[in-house]
Amino acid sequence: MVRCAASLRCALYLSQGVMTMLDQNLREAILALKTRGLGIRAIARATKVSRNAVRTVLTSGCSEVPTLHRSEACTPHLDLIRDLHQSCQGNWVRVHEELAAKDVVVSYSSLTSFCRRHKIGVVPKKPAGRYHFAPGEEMQHDTSPHDVKVGDKMRRLQCASLVLCYSRMIYAQCYPTYNRLWARSFLTDALTYFGGAADKCMVDNSSVIVIAGSGPDAIFAAELNALGERFNFGFIAHAIGDANRSARVERPFHYIENNFYPGRTFGDLPDLNAQFRAWCDTKNASYKKHLRTKPIELFVAEKPHLKPLPAYIPEVYELLYRIVDIEGYVTLHSNRYSVPIELLSRRLAVHFYADRLRIFDGHRLVAKHVRVEDRMNGRQTLEEHRTKQRWHQRRDLPELPEEKTLRAASPQLATFVTALRKKHSGRVIRPLRRLHRMYLDYPSEPLCAAISEAMQYNLFDLDRIEKMVLKRIAGDFFRLEVPPEKEDNDG
After folding, report:
1. Beta-sheet strand order (sheet of 234-237)
2. Which residues contact 356 (CB under 8 A, 6 or more apart)?
3. Alpha carbons 301 and 289: distance in angstroms, whole number
4. What is the Cα–Cα distance from 410 to 294, expressed in whole angstroms?
5. Partner residues linked to 143 by β-bridges
6. CB 182 within 8 A of CB 164
């Protein structure tokens, strides 16, 4: 009985030794115990493994875990799987279906794990690097589209951000769209907020800033190069697909979406940006666990290394030329702005700022407007232009000769002429001439009677009035002689 139990225990140890794989730590412990003079039985008892497993480790004399070589069901079909992966354009579901059609029975999970082991359709991952920046060495700029509720509706806005790489100071604002005017305006505001600029500014390969090339070969827009010269820094672009290079500015966008927008209400875009600036002030003064300090404290060390601001920072604007339309407006981005009426059809220069615009006729300033958000189909008219517009000036039509005749003819006609002027205003010439022709064609008494009746019902339709006159004079005014009947010669 004891012998049977020992045999069973031995068989169990053997099965455990075969079924389980000893890890490297346990193998090192077995070899170390052997060097201390312990026997196989003592080592097996100390490590709680079978004696056969101890013998195997001691025989190999190596602590590394041996690689298991197992046959795989997909191995005979390796070339077929590679061809199907290419013909099916990398769709593993289709590859699995085609294998089944060719009587190759294999589970989907086994197929995908086999392909991963043999590097079929697998893009090797590149390790993420860590970049270290000295104070004032670099700043990073980028934009990200965000869906934000402004007022009572959701809007797609472009969030622009600039981050100092050493201190992690951040400045961000939202814009309805992002073009070179907004880029120059944002960078000017951000550098003014920081009080200086780093030596270089890392950007992505967006066409707003880069006009040709990419990465090290990028060619930047002339307006942005001029901005860099003014603030004494240069632009650089990272290689396409190397977003990790601009991680200082990429990472905060997720934080902004999940920390700044939720729980806040924004009346309009200026209100949103005012709250955004206050939020940046708060976060720059908050403790960061990964930095083990506050960005504002690191900024104290970085500020002396920033390029100082120029003595004069001109306002950023875009110079456009527009021709005044026939209504006295210039059109920019689907919005219309009024100008003095004497400038109709003139070509004017428009200085288009971030929040306003100024319109010049040569060197003379002729109008200043608050900028309406682009593509709003708005119309903005200044009060001084409204009073001078000719379509707002009510000009009285001079008295016509026919009108004088009608007024002198009878009180009823004079009252009717006054009512016609009030009803038709500047378009009264044709009705007056029609009434004057009726005065000449018909007797005055039936005409005045018809007009008096028409005035009782506030009727000004001259066709109906003329019918009323003809009804009154029928049989009197147009009486015709009846020709005598001819005698019947046959009678």
Report:
1. 170-175, 153-164, 138-150, 200-203, 234-237
2. 368, 369, 370, 371
3. 19
4. 94
5. 160
6. no
Q: Which residue has the tokens 């003095």?
A: 340
Q: Closest Cα to residue 200, out of 164, 174, 171?
A: 164
The whole-angstrom separation of Cα 417 and Cα 390 is 26
Q: Do 328 and 340 form a contact (C-beta atoms < 8 A)?
A: yes
Amino acid 137: pLDDT? 93
Positions in the chain whose pLDDT score sits under 50 = 1-19, 388-392, 491
- Identify whether the C-beta of residue 157 lies closer than 8 Å to the C-beta of residue 174: yes
Angle of helix 444-456 versus helix 462-473 axis, rounded to 10 = 130
Long-range own/partner contacts, residues 266-273 (CB < 8 A, 24 or more apart): 266/148, 266/149, 266/150, 266/151, 267/150, 267/151, 268/150, 268/151, 269/150, 269/157, 269/174, 269/175, 269/176, 269/373, 272/148, 272/150, 272/157, 272/174, 273/173, 273/174
Nearest C-alpha neighbor of 465 from the set 483, 479, 453: 453
Distance of CA 236 to the CA centre of its chain: 24
Q: Give the tokens for residue 100.
A: 């089944």
The per-residue pLDDT for 256 is 93
Residue 247 half-sphere exposure, CB side, CA atoms within 13 Å? 9
pLDDT per position as a tens digit, 359-410: 999 999 999 999 888 877 888 888 888 754 444 455 566 778 888 888 888 8
How far is 434 from 183, CA to CA, in rounded Å? 66
Question: What's the CATH fold of domain 2-60?
Answer: Arc Repressor Mutant, subunit A (1.10.10)
Inter-axis angle of helices 92-101 and 108-117, to 10 degrees?
A: 110
Q: Which CATH superfamily is domain 139-305 in?
A: Ribonuclease H-like superfamily/Ribonuclease H (3.30.420.10)
> CA–CA separation, 150 vs 147, rounded Å?
9
In 3D space, the residue among 17, 19, 31 whose CA is nearest the CA of residue 60 turns out to be 31
State whether the Cα torsion 423-429-435-436 is positive or negative. Answer: positive
3-state secondary structure of 338: strand
8 A C-beta contact, residue 298 and residue 166? yes
Q: Residue 465 carries which side chain, given as an amino acid letter? A: I
In the numeric block, which tokens belong to residue 454?
């028409």
CA–CA distance, 34 with 40 (Å, rounded to integer):
8
Exposed, middle or buried, 251 (CB in 10 Å: 0-12/13-18/19+)?
Answer: exposed
pLDDT tens digits, 81-111: 999 999 998 898 999 999 999 888 889 998 8
Whether this prediction's pTM lies above 0.85 is answered by no
